[in-house]
Amino acid sequence: MIKLIAAVCAAALAGSVARQSAYVLLIVIFGGLIVGRLVSLALNGGFAGYSPTIVALYAVDAIGFTLALTALAVDRQGSL
């Protein structure tokens, strides 16, 4: 799965796939990760019991989601 994601992103860099396709793919991936983490956080009642690595993944997923959304928005503005 990771190789497929990397292939789509590499194809977007090479120009054979639209950049917007790669951005949407990343939005779906990071969005799903952060939503799943937030649901588990709510069901668990907080960060108690999570290792520092797992807590850091909340930030990684949120930043990835935000950057992908921002990149898509900026790319769409540039094409207007």
Features:
80 residues; mainly alpha
Structural commentary:
The longest helix is centred in the last third of the chain and has 27 residues, at 52-78. It is built from three helices and no strands. By secondary structure, the chain is an all-alpha fold. It has one domain (2-78). The protein has helices at 2-14, 19-44, 52-78. The protein is elongated, with a radius of gyration of 15 Å.
Which class do the helix and strand fractions yield? mainly alpha
What count of helical segments does DSSP give?
Answer: 3
> What is the overall pLDDT average?
93
N-to-C terminal Cα separation, in Å?
33 Å
What proportion of the residues form beta strands (DSSP E)? under 5%
How many domains, as an integer? 1
Parts with pLDDT < 50 across at least 5 consecutive residues: none
Biggest pleated-sheet summary: none
Order of helices and strands: HHH
